[in-house]
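tl;dr need the bound structure. longer version: we got a ligand (uridine-5'-diphosphate-glucose) that a collaborator sent over and nobodys looked at where it sits. i said id run it. heres the input, straight from their email, havent touched it
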Amino acid sequence: MNILVCGGAGYIGSNMTAMLARHGHNPVVYDNLSKGHKSAIRNAQFVRGDLADYDLLVETIKKYSIDAVMHFAAFIEVGESVADPLGYYYNNFCNARNLLQAMVDTGVNKFVFSSTAAVYGEPETIPITEDIAKQPINPYGDSKRAVELMLSFLSKTGKMNYAALRYFNACGAGEDGTLGEDHQPESHLIPLIIQAAMGKREDIKIFGNDYPTHDGTCIRDYIHIEDLCKAHLLALDKLDDEAELIFNLGNGKGYSVLEVIETVKKVSGKDFTVITGDRRPGDPPVLTADASRARQQLGWTTDFPELEIIVESAWKFHNANPDGYGD
Ligand SMILES: O=c1ccn([C@@H]2O[C@H](COP(=O)(O)OP(=O)(O)O[C@H]3O[C@H](CO)[C@@H](O)[C@H](O)[C@H]3O)[C@@H](O)[C@H]2O)c(=O)[nH]1
């Protein structure tokens, strides 16, 4: 299939692009390179473009005879979204609407959407199933939820079949450890701890140790990037017949911030300074997925559920690329 990968130069998008190529698809990356890395694009055609550019989207879809779209291009920082809600709704919602309009106008009707556990807000039950209340507590989560609702209504017109995939904490490096996380600036836990282990930052700060968890630090469900991408391939295959697919993507096993720090220490063999700071606003104590729907309906299985394996792949990437992609 010819697949337009919006945001295909970013962390998840570039891993997805590489996996699509490995599986015989023809990915076309569409990315404005504001956050992504051109050197992370593997085995794909590349169009430098912005999702706000309707004409270029239509031209690209026609030029490459696109059959389906995977959409990874979004802002992802919760704190930034609180400071700039309009920027988040514009990029994450308005631009997704623009992309969908271009798809409808060119007759492309298969769409895989990167959603997030942030649509649940502070869930009342753990592990999280897809049908609990969606009550996002920040503009990031709400902008993603708004796109989900738009997709749901659009699918009912018969013009779009879609999969909304709600990611828990994507991490690790794919393609044999060569495609890893390099966010600018970095705010994600595992790369930050690795920077501390590499001596690139003085310490790692734990955001709060007074949560109601076994060691007082927040618990998250860390999912290896390759496992995450695999679910997209499976979902894409279903979109010929299914109008609406919604799945949580996580391992269902939670690790605390302290446990992640200990794992990085073990994998790296390095010691480093750990300090405890205040809670970060908007962090729920525990987020873990019940992903049984994806397992049952997609036949999805995870190959790398162990945190140590995930951290090893990330460690390998950061050691090989101490300054990230450098572009
Ligand atoms: O320097 C740091 C950075 C993070 N944390 C904690 O580590 C955990 C993980 O944080 P982070 O890596 O920032 O991920 P999340 O805030 O859990 O959010 C991720 O997971 C969400 C889905 O759950 C996605 O929507 C987001 O895009 C993605 O960043 C949280 O408890 C943070 O409070 C620290 O203690 N210190």
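gonna send this back to them w/ a short note. The chain has ten helices and 14 strands.
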